[in-house]
## 1
Amino acid sequence: MTAPERSWTIRETRTGDAARIATHRYHRGEPQSDIDAYVHWLAPRIERGTYVGFVAELAGQPIAGAGAVLLDWGPIRGEPGGTRARLVNVFTEATHRRQGLARALLQRVMDSCDARGIRVFNLAASSDGAPIYRALGFVPYEGEMILRR
């Protein structure tokens, strides 16, 4: 049996993709106000280049995406560049999963960041997504804490 022919293409994220990215990010019935706020936040970051993202399309329609928010972390031991990439918005439409889209998109995002000298990536992984990240070399990092006031 031969593998199915890959019919999707990958392109860089454009400012006009912000609304689609937001609906992928908030796909569990979150309020429209959250989606609108994310679009408002994301669009200028795409424009400035502080969001690095890629979209997979099939017949001109977005079916998957992945991105990274570039964080001005500041130089620390072992990271003199001071910028980290937070991987976000990794999403594939249900009918197109298990075709290698997420892996291909993540690789493009990380390669693009690497070309900018950014070599440290972090993320929050769902249980469904964790195996992909582990296969790419990510390891658990349990030293984080959070406080919301």
Note: The longest helix spans residues 32-48.
## 2
Amino acid sequence: MADEIALGREAQRQLRGKTPHIGGSIEAYVTRVGQQLANQAGGPRYPYSFSVADTREINALALPGGPVWINRGTLEAASNESEMAGVLAHEIAHIARRHAAAQISKEIVANGLLGLLGAVLGNAGGASTAQAGAQALAGGYLMTFTREDEREADRAALDIMRRAGWDPRGLLAFMTTLRQRSGRDPSAVEVFFSTHPSPADRIVTLRALLTHSKITGRRDSPAFHRMHEKLSRPAGSRF
């Protein structure tokens, strides 16, 4: 667990340094929702954090050990708070189920970074190796999850949303929105498709999981729409 956290922190430091991001009240709001979801994730008690990338592409990213990124384009594409919560819950589930850790182990071997985890834990002479591994993570090179990982993350996300008090249908609704956007604006979802299974496949699975479920939970909030209003302001506006 300590190695995942250390590697994730270094990757997070590098991402924050090179990625335009939105702070202020928008990041604070996303963090509040994210932390409520993370509190219900189970698994290791990772130090979860939430960042908003200032890019119009629709995507989200989980780093090992706790950091979650969500793009501005994803926030803008969401119609209500439960849709946004569904995206965050899916990324949290990847971390809680240690998918990132399993993927790192495979990639360390495949890419000759055998000293990486020991280096992150502080072994002598390992700083440059750790930075190289974190740089690969920050570039997204190590975070292509398997289809089974993605299915498990969707199943776990629904449970996380229920326990945290959100309507789990929000994740299904967001996948439906993505499928519609792929026809109207393919470039907006191109990156998402490169790192996630197609929304059509996920919609089928999510519908099956939700068919016999008792649906309860919050769908929306005024805070979500205040965030949307702020995102619609002209470039250069303060958040």
Note: The longest strand covers residues 49-53.
## 3
Amino acid sequence: MATTYEIIQGLSQAAANAYDGAHNDEGELLEIGLQREQGNPLIDKRVMDGFNVRFFANKMVLSYHSEVQLKEVYAKGFESEIDQRLADIVSFLKKEYRKVTGSSVGLKQEGEIDVRVENSSRIRSWVMAAKTYVIEGSEAETVPQYSSDKLQDGWQSFLDQGGLGKKAKNDKRPKSSGE
């Protein structure tokens, strides 16, 4: 059984292998499931999209970013289309993880997809989506909780050293009527 660190290393390497223009062993372009893979790159307008993975405890957060047109946003099934794109990316990550490490990894969806569309003008819009997955088979189950006792003691000793409201020893100014 792999440790959490080894699983995270493998998933990070799988995500790193998904750069734009990456080729597989046969020399063909990698199919990740992104919009930039569609069409002819020489004559079609390039779609800027990509994904990122980040980890905490036994969870992986998959983030996706892409340019969109408002007519796509208002069309039916926009959120499910983005959700399917994330599912394609997870499928790619699992396959690439198997190639990199020689073993499989389980990613179980936790919660719902978070989709946010923003625009900077009437023409430029983009979508940002994120979804959390539980890494199955990893050792860490929860994020460790920090004790506030140690923190409280440190702050208390810091405050005791201060002289809020007291005059410093090296202050040679004459006393004013306000003090």
Note: The first strand starts at residue 49 and ends at 56.
## 4
Amino acid sequence: MNKIILVGKAAAGKDHMRRILEGRGFKYGVSYTTRPPRPNEIDGEDYYFLEESEFNEGIEKGKWYEWVEFNGWKYGTSNKQFLEECNLFIMTPKGIAHIDPVERKQCTIIYLDVSDTVRSARLLQRGDKNDSIERRMYNDDLDFKNFTDYDIKIENANF
């Protein structure tokens, strides 16, 4: 099954692009996370919110196709989602690095790379009380340093 994987720093438009693609028939693999929900996020729609112990049990049982720790929280995609059920995902550069080379050939990775000015304004609008804008942008810069494993790069914030 061919897959589309969206990747980008915080507030780059990944969820916006995901909704566009879902409207065109793609099936989104909702990520699992130990991060607390932001205001208006819905469990099972935006993420599956898990306790740390639940996520770690999934690690021990081999549930995750890929999982990463970012900003102190864990994020992951299940084997069932990636291998059987879904064809649209949002991942981080570290998550993409876990994709099997054979399966990578069936993936189109779209890198949403909008300006820091746009991202900062969007993050401010979000009002995320769980993380500061400065910390998030700093950690994103580290996470995306030397990132080149993508097929398409979109720099236009108004896609």
Note: The chain is about 35% helix and 20% strand.
